[in-house]
Amino acid sequence: NDTEGQGPTPDPNRPIDVRTPALDLDPVYGQGPHGTPEFYTPDGLFFRLGANGNDLLRDAHGVALIGDPRNDDNGLIASIHLAFQKYHNTLMTRALNGIDPNSLTQPQKDALFAMVHNEVVAYYQGIVTHEFAEAITGKPIPSDEPPLTAVPIEFSGAVFRMGHSLVPNTIIVDHQGDTKNPTDPTLRQNGFIPYDLLFGPHAQHAAALDDKISDTMRTLLIPLSPTDPGQGDLIGGNAPNIGMGQIIDGVMHLDLVETNILRGRELHLPSGEEYLAMLDHKPYHPATDGNTDLFVYILKEATPLGHLGRVGTDVVDRTIGGLIAADPYRYDNPAIFSKAQINTFRNATFEKLLHEIGTPGF
What's the pTM value of the predicted model, to 2 decimals? Predict the structure, then answer.
């Protein structure tokens, strides 16, 4: 996502990505049926799916044909991606109401696609601003945040990485009770973990949101191929102390926590104490106030609460609330959606989405 410094000491050489920072499901939709027609059926209205509708569309080499290939690095993210594709197809079928797509003119198809796309994105925004936000901050995202056109580096470089503390050492992967390391690449050989083991009344709990990182995540190996574990692994993160061109003999290990801290320092993120001083409109003195790396600070702040504290919550509110405020098609815009639709979006949950697409158990 695009990033920009919004805190006390932003880095002038901030990274810029070509992807949109808006909460618009661009990894799912790509550039739409005209820009990425390979994602869609010939009429341009439905997503093409793979494996009898139970997998992402893939090429002959097993590579997912999606807007952001990184969404296929992780089985859980890939299954969520697939669920939103199915949700789009469900709403499109409902909108057509038996009409043959081939009987529509191209402008009619474009208008229909835009309507369904806007509704799917709005539902996603409702999940993020309410269900997701309440889980990590204890409350919904405020609706009065100033608009943002880019993601603050405090979010992308530190707070968003809180998810590393939420990954447990093992998870149940099937209805027989078998368990595996959640980063085990062989998980992808047998498809996705059943949704009812991840969502709903029998969902497994994540690890606690605290300052502890599971052994699984302290050294993270990334598979070269999400569908072929025999391809080998690449280590997650950067290796700043290894010279260019040097051959690495054997397995290289790099602590994920250290990687996050080093990345934060490279981005010149403010310390947690500096950010807190900004919130309180007070001067900041590192020698007496403290100088804790932001990633570590927000986790320590969350440890006694079970959710993010003042600093972490402010970054989340400012980021998500600001990106939503800048979106003219945002989920709560009465010029786009009816009161009934807006109420649906405000009460959106991923479990309800799974029910809508006909997922067993929901």
Answer: 0.86
